[in-house]
Design a protein that fits this description.
By secondary structure, this protein is an alpha+beta fold. The protein folds into 2 domains: 31 residues; 139 residues, Sandwich (Immunoglobulin-like). The protein is built from 2 helices and 11 strands; from the N terminus they run αββββββαβββββ. The strands form 3 sheets. The protein has a 5-stranded antiparallel sheet with strand order 6-7-4-10-11. Strands 1-2-9-5 form a 4-stranded antiparallel sheet, with no helix packed on it. A two-stranded antiparallel sheet has the order 3-8. Keywords: Coiled coil.
């Protein structure tokens, strides 16, 4: 019976987060397709699915996309992202990184860009801090009205007996503009 208040708190937290997401979606729907000014206007967000297993020793999974949409009237030069996970000891990234990955842009325009670590140091930072600093291989700018996506990544989640909160933060930067998304 001691778990009931804890579960009620978790439900309230999830309901609060759901209200925030619904509010953000409503705001995005009210925005015009493209802002007609010289301002930088970027919307970045996660789409994701969770597979959390209850069996002891099994790993859960977060499968997702990190989407960046340029809603301004200026191109965004040299885009890059950072995905930060916590706790880093219990989350491992699985993604197709590198230049040898080819997608047919006609089939799915969101699943078209290959990504890589920004540099060798970024690979070390991923191990040390749980931060994955990535840049697209073939895209050096996002034109007004265009969308760029880091697609089909997965995080393996180590399930533990102790109740743990898992968190993925997303950051996008280009032209000295930094945006943060949290899920």
């Amino acid at each position: 019976m001691d778990l009931i208040p804890e579960l009620e708190q978790k439900i309230q937290a999830i309901e609060k987060e759901l209200r925030m997401v619904k509010q953000a979606v409503a705001e995005i729907k009210r925005l015009p397709q493209q802002v007609l000014s010289d301002e930088i206007c970027v919307v970045c967000y996660f789409t994701y699915s969770l597979l959390l297993l209850k069996a002891q020793g099994q790993k859960g999974m977060i499968a997702g996309n990190f989407v960046i949409r340029n809603m301004g009237s200026s191109p965004l030069e040299h885009p890059y992202i950072c995905l930060r996970v916590s706790p880093k000891e219990h989350m491992a990234l699985s993604a197709k990184l590198g230049g040898g990955i080819q997608y047919d842009r006609r089939l799915n325009p969101l699943v078209m860009e290959a990504w890589q670590y920004m540099n060798e140091e970024a690979e070390n930072i991923a191990e040390e801090k749980g931060e994955f600093w990535l840049k697209p291989i073939h895209v050096s700018r996002i034109e007004p009205g265009q969308t760029l996506s880091f697609s089909n990544f997965q995080f393996q989640v180590g399930m533990r007996e102790v109740s743990t909160t898992y968190k993925v933060d997303g950051f996008f930067s280009a032209n000295s503009c930094l945006m943060e998304c949290e899920r």
